[in-house]
Design goal:
By secondary structure, this protein is mostly helical. The protein has one domain: ABC transporter involved in vitamin B12 uptake, BtuC. It is 77% helix and 0% strand. It is built from 14 helices and no strands. The longest helix has 39 residues.
């Protein structure tokens, strides 16, 4: 009898180890497949085998002869673009899950703190007004504007003492202020083509990202995910309200500031690189909860994986929906996100 019990215990322990490992491998395979298809699609189609050979050649695993043009396109343009899309999607989805838990609002998303609006103002200040006299890039201006917006929200919401409702209202006010500033600069610009290019960038574009952007966004999002996992139980406590979390020993004010700052860093980094891409941080967390449940220890990694795949597929769609033309990523995510979010709201209404 004890042998049977010991065998059952060992099998359960084995399943607990194998199941997560198998899930992680399946997710990595799905992301790798999506990246491979993304690299192969474009004006110059590249077979998946060539992409694999180019990567293994670069890593020193193989020495397969490849078309030099294909290899240059893969490494100098498409692979870095696809990998940046992976981490941008993961970061936005992760930020959305955190914001919805912290604010206890199902409509909360990464841009609720006005970060996108601030980044837009910073970008147009550099590109159109010439702030920095050429020494500051548009991405750097967007990052500075995003953090200016975050600090303004912190000031309006009274920092750590501000509640969830006050933070949302402060975010709305900040978004309106910075959006008005951006609109004023763009509409009064004398260079119509420059204003058009800036507006296209603000709607989201992976066209200008390369390996330096990949290194930065991978470090920021990777560190953000690890840091957020330490707060998984705290985020579960926030689901019952600030008072309940405080009664469980959570320093509500300090935790809110840390997590808001963490989401601000990730969002500002992403927006400064690729512009504002909506609906990823709003839709992906809701869709993921239907699969893995509300516990944040499972929800946050699942959101990162789902957001990564979703963003890569959106990038593919942006390059293939209209021949010889690239759509802004924000347009594609909105076209997919609005119907999908409507379905989620309908299901929530039926279950409530």
């Amino acid at each position: 009898m004890s042998i049977a019990a010991e065998t059952s215990k060992s099998s359960r322990l084995l399943r607990r180890i194998i199941a997560p490992a198998a899930f992680c491998l399946a997710c990595l395979a799905a992301i790798a497949l999506a990246v491979g298809f993304s690299v192969g699609i474009g004006d110059m189609p590249i077979p998946l085998s060539s992409t694999y050979s180019a990567i293994t050649n670069k890593l020193g695993w193989t020495s397969i002869e490849l078309n030099r043009i294909h290899e240059a396109v893969i490494w100098d343009y498409r692979l870095s673009r696809a990998l940046v899309a992976v981490f941008c999607g993961a970061g936005l989805a992760l930020c959305g899950a955190i914001m919805q838990a912290m604010l206890r609002n199902p409509l909360a998303e990464p841009y609720v703190l006005g970060i996108s609006a601030g980044a837009s103002t910073g970008a147009v200040a550099v590109a159109i007004l010439g702030v920095g006299a050429g020494a500051v890039s548009m991405s750097a201006g967007a990052f500075a504007g995003a953090f200016a917006a975050f600090l303004f929200v912190a000031l309006l919401s009274n920092g750590a003492r501000g509640g969830a409702d006050r933070t949302i209202l402060a975010g709305v006010a900040t978004s309106q202020l910075f959006n008005a500033a951006t609109s004023y600069v763009v509409t009064t610009s004398g260079n119509a083509q420059q204003a058009r290019d800036v507006m296209f960038w603000l709607l989201g574009s992976f066209g200008g990202v390369r390996w330096p952007e990949f290194v930065l966004v991978s470090v920021v999002v990777g560190c953000g995910l690890v840091a957020c996992l330490f707060y998984a139980r705290v985020l579960d406590a926030f689901a019952f309200g600030d008072e309940a979390a405080s009664s469980l020993g959570v320093d509500v004010g300090r935790t809110r500031v840390i997590l808001f700052a963490l989401t601000a860093v990730m969002t500002a980094t992403i927006v400064s690189m690729v512009g504002a891409i909506g609906f990823v941080g709003l839709v992906v967390p809701h869709a993921t909860r239907f699969v893995v449940g509300p516990q944040h220890a499972r929800l946050m990694p699942a959101c990162a994986i789902t957001g990564a795949i979703f963003m890569v597929l959106a990038d593919i769609a942006s390059r293939t929906l209209i021949p010889q033309q690239v759509l802004p990523i924000g347009v594609v995510t909105a076209l997919v996100g609005v119907p999908f979010f409507s379905i989620i709201l309908y299901k929530l209404q039926r279950t409530s």
